[in-house]
User: Which sequence fits this backbone?
């Protein structure tokens, strides 16, 4: 056997041994990965089952109590009671009252057109489920009706998710009759087939089918190979290569953002805030923009999200406040002028924001009350630290504003705990003004609720005279939107302000 043959056979044998070890390692890792994925799907199913059971029990008990209360049908007292339940519940979105199979009124008011009671899809102990229920407020929205005698509560199935499932996981809640009760992430998996990993959890009312593509097991496979791969060097190198490639792409955008912070590439645009009763500009909302060195603009929703995930939002917030104070120092000498500033959710987790605000005003004659601190509903729904920070901000005299109000899950009882001054009604509700749709009544209830809490109101996204007339009629204090002006650079805003305030 010559030297060349020996070398070739050695290489061949080595290759066979490497391939065999890799195949064995991959097989074991696949079994473990599949088991772990099934455990994960089982956990999701258990959590959703618990959430559904609690939700249905809570709603059922509420309807039973409501049925015992004596009201004149569709009286003001009855409607207000139904509204109270809706406002204080994170589950119920609407309550309907039926007589003789016809809808007479609901939590939005008296119903003047014929709406018949749907046939129940399931009934037990007097409680009925209606899967094809319709909401008069959002007729295109999928809701579930829970009915007891004359009352029916409407629930958005999204509330059955106690946790947010990974986007690659599809969850189907199906009655034993075969009707679909709820579905999450339906666009990810079109059909359940042998290419899916499926876990089914049964109970007396329904079964929960949790599924995902088996492609996801391959992702978990790499994690298991690190444990069960004494001969998995080749595979490890491949994984490292993939991680490096993904990380390089990720770090590329992150590196640009860090450089932008160091080079101060951010600018502030200002959208005028109009006092409705006078039409005068009394302030502006500050909106940060990233102006790249090549002249292009980066969308805020992209770089703000990246900054929040990588603990870079604080230096951006610091630069934003410095730019605002520099840009508007002359206008802010007018004590009637206000500037509204958006802060990220993380800013309210600690009291650092207090130092940022106070440092910005240090050495100026600007009053804290001229600074409106904006936060979304979701950013205020976390911990006691948030409430403590808000109270600290408010005690110093700064105004606290909830942005995009109506898009979160705030209940009336929760709002009462917060030291708020103003709410900004989301544009989606302003768009419904003047239109013959059931959603146009939602804004009436938002305004009524704000007035009951002595909160000032800002209408966002105003684009038409009819909207302005409606807002003035309902004593809304402020508005902003394209009807008046878009967000603009500093020099154009100053020109607008001078022209508007002549």
Assistant:
């Amino acid at each position: 056997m010559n030297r060349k043959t020996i070398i070739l056979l050695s290489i061949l044998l080595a290759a066979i041994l490497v391939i065999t070890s890799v195949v064995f390692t991959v097989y074991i890792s696949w079994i473990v990965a599949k088991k772990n994925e099934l455990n994960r799907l089982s956990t999701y199913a258990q959590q959703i089952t618990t959430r559904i059971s609690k939700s249905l029990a809570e709603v059922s008990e509420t309807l039973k109590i409501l049925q015992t209360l004596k009201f004149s049908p569709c009286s003001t007292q009855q409607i207000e009671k139904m509204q109270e339940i809706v406002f204080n519940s994170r589950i119920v979105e609407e309550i309907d009252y039926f007589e003789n199979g016809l809808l007479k009124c609901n939590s939005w008011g008296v119903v003047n057109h014929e709406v018949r009671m749907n046939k129940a899809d399931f009934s037990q102990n007097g409680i009925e489920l209606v899967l094809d229920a319709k909401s008069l407020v959002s007729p295109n929205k999928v809701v579930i009706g829970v009915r007891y005698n004359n009352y029916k509560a409407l629930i958005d199935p999204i509330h059955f998710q106690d946790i947010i499932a990974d986007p690659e996981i599809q969850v189907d809640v199906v009655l034993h009759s075969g009707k679909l009760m709820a579905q999450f992430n339906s666009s990810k998996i079109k059909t359940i087939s042998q290419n899916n990993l499926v876990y089914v959890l049964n109970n007396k009312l329904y079964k929960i089918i949790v599924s995902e593509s088996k492609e996801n097991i391959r992702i978990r496979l790499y994690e298991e190979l690190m444990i069960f791969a004494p001969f998995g060097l080749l595979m490890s190198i491949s994984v490292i290569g993939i991680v490096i490639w993904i990380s390089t792409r990720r770090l590329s955008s992150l590196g640009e953002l860090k450089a932008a912070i160091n080079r101060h590439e951010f600018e502030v645009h200002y959208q005028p805030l109009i006092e409705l009763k006078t039409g005068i500009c009394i302030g502006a909302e500050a909106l940060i923009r990233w102006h790249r060195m090549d002249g292009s603009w980066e969308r805020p929703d992209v770089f703000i999200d990246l900054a929040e995930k990588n603990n870079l939002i604080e230096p951006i917030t610091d630069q934003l406040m410095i730019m605002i104070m520099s840009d508007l120092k002359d206008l802010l000498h007018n004590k009637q002028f206000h500037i509204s500033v958006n802060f990220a959710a993380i800013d309210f987790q600690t009291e650092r924001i207090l130092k940022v605000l106070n440092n910005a005003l240090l050495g100026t004659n600007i009053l804290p009350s001229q600074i409106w601190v904006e936060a979304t509903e979701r950013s205020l729904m976390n911990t006691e630290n948030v409430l403590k920070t808000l109270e600290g901000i408010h005690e110093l005299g700064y105004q606290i504003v909830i942005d995009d109000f109506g898009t979160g899950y705030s209940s009336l009882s929760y709002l009462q705990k917060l030291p708020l001054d103003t709410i900004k009604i989301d544009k989606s509700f302003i768009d419904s003004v003047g239109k013959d749709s059931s959603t146009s009544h939602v804004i009436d209830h938002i305004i009524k609720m704000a007035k009951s809490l002595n909160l000032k109101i800002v209408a966002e996204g105003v684009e038409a005279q009819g909207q302005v007339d409606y807002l003035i009629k309902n004593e809304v204090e402020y508005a902003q939107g394209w009807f008046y002006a878009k967000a603009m650079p500093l020099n154009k805003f100053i020109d607008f302000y001078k022209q508007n305030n002549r």
